[in-house]
Amino acid sequence: MRSKLVTAGAIAAAALVAGAVFGLGSSRAAGNAPVNTAAPTLSGAAQEGQTITASNGGWSNAPTSYTYAWSKCDASGGSCSAISGATTAAYVATPTDVGGTLRVTVTAKNADGSTQGTSAPSAIVSSATAPTNKVAPGISGSPAVGSTLTADQGTWDGSPTGYAFAWSRCDANGNSCAMIDGATSATYTLRPADAAGTLRLAVTATNADGSTQFTTAPTALVPGTGGCPAGTGTIQIADLQQPARLSIDATTIAPKLVTLGTRMIQLHVLVTACGGRPVQGASVFATPIPYNQFAGPEKTTGADGTVALTQKRRAGFPARSRKQHLLAVFVRATKPGEPVLDGVSTRRTVAFRVNLP
Asked: What is the pLDDT of residues 122-155, one digit of tens each?
């Protein structure tokens, strides 16, 4: 049977009865104690009477042993309480677990100390009379950007009356999964954002007595594309992923010659990526340096990759009366919503002539 990984999103931190803090690497020792590099995961159907198995997750600093503590949580993965006696890597769901979720906390130890890592919550535990998976769901199709993957719903007992699908984007090892908005059909076409990662599919089977969810093993690694979408022509900023970079290819100013009488300037900026393709939706910011000479709002590029930034004169212009020959302007282009210094971005300083008689 293929393994199951819970695909629920990250849940706000909550304390376990034993004092464990949910999340990666809640270390309780300094020095070279184990460090949690990938959260523990759960496999198996979240159903009464079925066995759910914990993986240790990823660890550095060579743990020498692992211990386990299972907790029962509410349907959202919060309000957890320790399950007495549930201290092995495998746990059989009981009738009291139905309607809630499960988590496991793995404690890794070495000679320098111990560290805890806690899984994401399981799917909601279903009753024994809900559909029971007999042959695990699967995914067919080539894992490549632009290709379409197709769900195999698997085989179920309990006469399911319907199936639901939810695709998730995971890291290269099939961990750290996040559900993909709107990806709820039996097919999914891979996007640039999926490059260098893997996909999983959660299949939920339903009958009159309830629902049971089973999540597939991860796909093979989706080859990287350098962050650039396939094709030619305009690139939508949402389709650009790291390590792709934006480029400020051209910047002009109006009026062409800035003088003491200039009260307003307009900067025209062209933003491209992936070998000169125009980028639509890039956020562009510009400011003359030294500051407080001209100022205006940040704007986004159009379908031709250009944007016009109108800036009004400020009290700091000119920066050096009669001795200023150039207006130096810092220009920055970024992908909205990403860190300015660590996302798909670029920056450049350009200069324009100034005539101060």
From this structure: 999 999 999 998 898 999 998 988 899 999 999 9
Q: Per residue, what are the HEC states of the chain?
A: CCCCCCCCCCCCCCECCCCCECCCCEECCCCCCCEEEECCCEECCCECCCEEEECCCEEECCCCEEEEEEEEECCCCCCCEECCCCCCCEEECCHHHCCCEEEEEEEEEECCEEEEEECCCCCCCECCCCCEEEECCEEECCCCCCCEEEEECCEEECCCCEEEEEEEEECCCCCCCEECCCCCCCEEECCHHHCCCEEEEEEEEEECCEEEEEECCCCCCCCCCCCCCCCCCCEEHHHCCCCCCEEEEEEEEECCCEECCCCEEEEEEEEEECCCEEEECCEEEEEEECCCCEECCCEECCCCCEEEEEEEECCCCCCCCCCCCEEEEEEEEECCCCCCCCCCEEEEEEEEEEECC
Confirm whether pTM is higher than 0.70: no
Structure tokens at 320: 């050096």
What pLDDT, on a 0 to 100 scale, did the predictor assign at position 197? 84
Q: Are 155 and 133 in contact (CB under 8 A)?
A: yes
Give the Cα separation of 312 and 288 in Å (integer). 11
Structural domains in the chain, CATH included, are 26-118 (2.60.40.2700), 132-215 (2.60.40.2700), 235-355 (2.60.40.10)
Say how far apart CA 338 and CA 35 lie, in whole Å.
27
- Per run of 10 residues, the mean pLDDT along the chain (length 357 residues) is 37 36 41 87 89 92 96 94 96 95 96 94 93 92 91 94 94 84 96 85 93 90 77 86 90 95 96 93 96 96 97 93 88 92 91 90
pLDDT of residue 224: 67
